[in-house]
Design a protein that fits this description.
single chain, 185 residues, 7 helices, 7 strands, binds S-adenosylmethionine
């Protein structure tokens, strides 16, 4: 199984077949395409596809390659993502904006699952959990990527942000394939 298929399987285990989810951080929409093609789900796809010049310092400080794209590369990623999901029509809503801003355009309690995979800094993940958690309906799931990833290149702030939130809220974290994490809301 590819890493994308592993993340997809972890999501599809929890997402109702015709459920609604948001993916926060889309890049090329490979994961989005996987979920859309293997379910009847609808997806809100959130990505700023922004160049490094527009990224916050805490994101660039992680050294994550995705925080350092130039405009031409970021635009190419967006085009590729759009073409990958075009065939799914109305099942897809794209919010091309910073994630916290995009959250304002989504109704509270409207989603079965939110998958956080954008700015992996502590500040970024903390802000995304705060902004997107209210969008999940009771009994739904919040989760994300690169939790407890032993690869030093991916040891950003995810663990700290998720663990702090879990301790404060009493949420129980489950892990799944390819360093994904999930908690019931
Ligand atoms: C790790 S990639 C996403 C990978 C994708 N989820 C997958 O599984 O294939 C991270 C993406 O998050 C986006 N991103 C980073 N910070 C963001 C923010 N604050 N708001 C919206 N998108 C952001 C980047 O533009 C990048 O495309």
């Amino acid at each position: 199984m590819t890493p994308v298929a592993q993340r997809g399987a972890a999501i599809l285990r929890r997402l109702p077949n015709n459920g609604a989810m948001a993916e926060i951080g889309v890049l090329l929409a490979k994961l989005s395409e996987h979920v859309l093609s293997k379910s009847g789900a609808s997806m809100v796809l959130v990505d700023s596809w922004a160049p490094a010049s527009e990224q916050p310092d805490h994101y660039k400080a992680t050294n994550d390659d995705h925080s350092k794209h130039d405009k031409r590369r970021a635009d190419a990623h967006k085009r590729e993502a759009m073409s990958r999901v075009a065939r799914f029509g109305k099942r897809v809503k794209v919010l091309a904006a910073p994630s916290v801003e995009a959250a304002e355009k989504v109704d509270d309690g409207s989603l079965d699952l939110v998958f956080i995979d954008a700015d992996h800094s502590y500040e970024g993940v903390k802000a995304d959990i705060a902004a997107w958690l209210p969008k999940v309906k009771e009994g739904g799931w919040v989760g994300g990527h690169d939790y407890r990833n032993p690869d030093p290149r991916f040891r950003f702030g995810v663990d700290r942000a998720v663990d702090e939130w879990a301790t404060a809220s009493g949420a129980v974290i489950e892990t799944d394939l390819n360093f994904t994490w999930f908690a019931r809301v």
